[in-house]
Amino acid sequence: MSLRLKFVLLISGSIIIPIMVFTVTFRSDDSFGVWRNSKSLYSPRAAWRTEIREGISDADYLSSVINSIPMLADVRVYNKSGTKVLERVSEKTGVAADDILILETIPFELSSGEVGQVKVTFPYPRFIADNTRFLVPLTGLIFIAVMAILIGQSINRSISLLERASSRIAEGDLDFKLPQKRGNDKFASLIRSFDSMRAHLKEEYARRSRFIMGISHDLKTPLSSIGGYVDAIRDGYADTPEKLEKYISIIEGKTDLLESRISMLIDFFRRDTDEWKMSLSPIDIGSFLTEYKKIFETETLVVGRRFSGNVNIPSRIDILMDGDMMVRAFENLAKNALQYSPEGSEIVFNAILENGTVLIEFANEGPGISKADIKSIFEPFVRGARDRKGGGFGLGLATVESILSSHGFSISADSMPGSQTVFCVSIPIVVGE
Q1: Where along the chain do its domains lie?
Q2: In this structure, which topology does domain 281-428 adopt according to CATH?
Q3: How large is the angle between the packed helices 323-339 and 285-302, nearest 10 degrees?
Q4: Phi-psi region of 408 (alpha: psi -120 to 50; beta: other; left: phi over 0)
Q5: What pTM, to 2 d.p., does this model score?
Q6: Which fold has domain 38-125?
């Protein structure tokens, strides 16, 4: 059963059930029963009224007409002089002593020329006279019906809107905006959330498109270079052993670059799926960081940078983590710091314990990161201005964030363009580790 059909049944029930209850209550009322059995009393065109007005042939016929009047009424016949010549007292079934009475006088004339009056006395229908008894439930019923229809229309519009939007998204169409529903009800919130999801999907697809275009360019560049040098060798431009060795060396370098970029892609997408599994074990974080500091310092000095570092972590603080994956994350941060710092500048690596959290800082001098880029620097498929200039994929920091978040760790970035960039890794110490 569809959701829309369920709402239709619910709303129909909320209207039909009160109507049935009201009808049963109304029809079971004594005064309604009396009125239903004596309807001709209240009809101006009742046959007995017409016959009395249009002429009665004789007294016997008048008597038969009077007997046809419902028994709820008192009937009295008066002659021309006002003397009562005939009387019929009604049955009082269903009539209360305080009922309002209607007195109707109908003149008649017999064929003999004798004239007179028929006076009919009958009670005003109690279910009409006492209208407040039914006014409240009737008003309530009308209110329920109107509200049910309005709510039903609102729900139906919301469901139809979401159905159409779902169909468009399923067809790959994200270039639309859902009309926002006013209010704070669940359907309005659902529509806003649905439209937010659509916007995020659209942005994600746009990022993927930009990313694929970047990949195509970054892979095509070394491939074109390799092809150019191969053609040069084939055409005989490498006419000396030295030139041939130089061309082959360049081809090897471009091949290594191409292999590195492809490996980076494969590695990143593996982390984005269940294929990547970690091997966790307790590791003394102080010793781990001290050993990595030595490696980082050596790499920094080799490329002509100055190094400043300090690891101030008490011994025997074990952290449950995958050591190899953490080294890979740190290597990405180190590579980032070295790549975007000028020769002779200072690279900083510090680690401290603060409020039950190990804080690890990678800092470098250099061009920095703009405010526009730093907001999304850890997102995949985002390439900042520095990556675009350097030809990178923009996956390094996304890989770092992926590794750290999978451990339950976090990373943040702060940068002053033209001055310094700082990445801070936070590793909470869990009691019992």
Answers
A1: 1-36+131-171, 38-125, 174-275, 281-428
A2: Heat Shock Protein 90 (3.30.565)
A3: 30
A4: left
A5: 0.51
A6: Ribosomal protein S3 C-terminal domain (3.30.1140)
Per-residue H/E/C for 336-371? HHHHCCCCCCEEEEEEEEECCEEEEEEEEECCCCCH
Name every residue whose Cβ is closer than 8 Å to that of residue 426 and which is 6 or more positions away in sequence: 357, 358, 359, 409, 410, 411, 412
Per-10-residue mean pLDDT, the chain, length 433: 64 71 60 58 78 79 83 85 85 58 83 85 63 64 78 79 87 84 75 88 79 71 86 88 90 85 73 63 95 94 94 92 90 91 95 95 92 81 52 68 89 90 94 53
Give me the count of residues in the chain. 433
Burial 189-218 (b: 16+ CB within 10 A, else e): eebeebbeebeeeeeeeebeeebeebbeeb
Distance, in Å, from the CA atom of 211 to the CA atom of 347, rounded to the nearest integer, reads 30
Domain 174-275 fold is: Helix Hairpins (1.10.287)
